[in-house]
Design goal:
The protein has one domain: TIM Barrel (Alpha-Beta Barrel). Helix content is 51%, strand content 19%. It has 14 helices and nine strands. It has an eight-stranded mixed beta barrel, surrounded by four helices. α3 runs parallel beside α5. The chain is globular, with a radius of gyration of 19 Å. The C terminus is likely disordered.
Length: 286
């Protein structure tokens, strides 16, 4: 089957995927380097096709964006992730939040902030438990509708995180106008962290984030060497296969329930930044 034929089949079948319950979510933990505990769970969309098996998001997310099916699919992801977070809270698990990726097409909908508000009300989930991840492109190409939605979401108490930071044209000018809550260093910089230029980029992003009072997360952490470097440089959270692959809900929550700690962070953190400076930065943020 040619790539074109495969893409056309994906486009056709995706229309039915949501209706036929072929989509599901997995959750990958973000680990707080100060405590070694789960700080957040990122909801990641998966598609189990009845004939083709598991289809990678790399293949179907661009199709969903192109056909704008990402709008209903994104709303389903948001509702499902929030419902899962509420279920975990009802189980007595707390101290972490749920993180959901949001498309620019969703943010371009005039009522998107209201959709989020209604979902939170329907599920009875406090906004502080929800983080929405947007790309730099969203800020750079932000129209009035997008900006209004982002402001309304912030007013509600929902956190906004810039995902894949450093991969697009500079969004600094837009960050002056709109306050976000955190940055995620793109995994392309983390995977090649041995390269001096990538070390410089990672260092600069962490420094920039901290100067702005933001939490900085590194995604795509797969080795102890990468982890040690990020902790040494003062990165706040880390995410990747070194800790866990994306997991079904019951496996993901076990990491929280057992007070999951992947490494001894106290000794590492004490080498990075004196306690006074860390607490000072968090005091400025609060």
């Amino acid at each position: 089957m040619s790539e074109v034929e495969f893409a056309n089949e994906i486009k056709r079948d995706l229309r039915l995927a949501l209706e036929k319950d072929q989509l599901f979510l997995c959750y990958q933990p973000l680990i707080d380097v100060r405590t070694g505990k789960v700080a957040s769970m990122e909801a990641l969309l998966r598609w189990q096709h009845p004939k083709k098996g598991m289809i990678s998001p790399i293949h179907f997310i661009p199709v969903a964006e192109e056909t704008r099916q990402i709008i209903p699919i994104g709303e389903w992801v948001l509702r499902t992730a929030c419902r899962q977070m509420k279920e975990w809270l009802n189980m007595g698990c707390s101290g972490f939040s749920i993180s959901v990726n949001v498309s620019v097409h969703q943010l371009q909908q005039p009522d998107f902030a209201k959709v989020v508000f209604d979902i939170l009300n329907e599920i009875e989930l406090e906004p502080r438990y929800l983080e929405l991840e947007i790309t730099e492109t969203v800020l750079i190409e932000a129209m009035d509708t997008v900006v209004r939605n982002l402001y309304r979401l912030k007013e509600m108490g929902v956190k906004i995180i810039i995902d894949d930071f450093g991969t697009e044209n500079s969004s600094f000018r837009y960050m002056q106008k709109f306050t976000v809550d955190g940055l995620k260093i793109d995994k392309s910089f983390v995977s090649e962290i041995k390269v001096d230029v990538n070390k410089a980029i990672v260092d600069a992003i962490i420094l920039l984030g901290h100067r702005m009072g933001l939490d900085v997360t590194a995604e795509g952490v797969e080795t102890r060497e990468q982890l040690d470097y990020l902790v040494e440089r003062g990165c706040d959270k880390v995410q990747g296969y070194y800790f866990s692959k994306p997991l079904p809900p019951d496996e993901a929550i076990r990491m929280v329930q057992k007070g999951y700690q992947m490494f001894h962070v106290s000794s590492l953190c004490s080498q990075v930044l004196p306690r006074g400076r860390r607490s000072e930065r968090h005091k400025r943020r609060g």
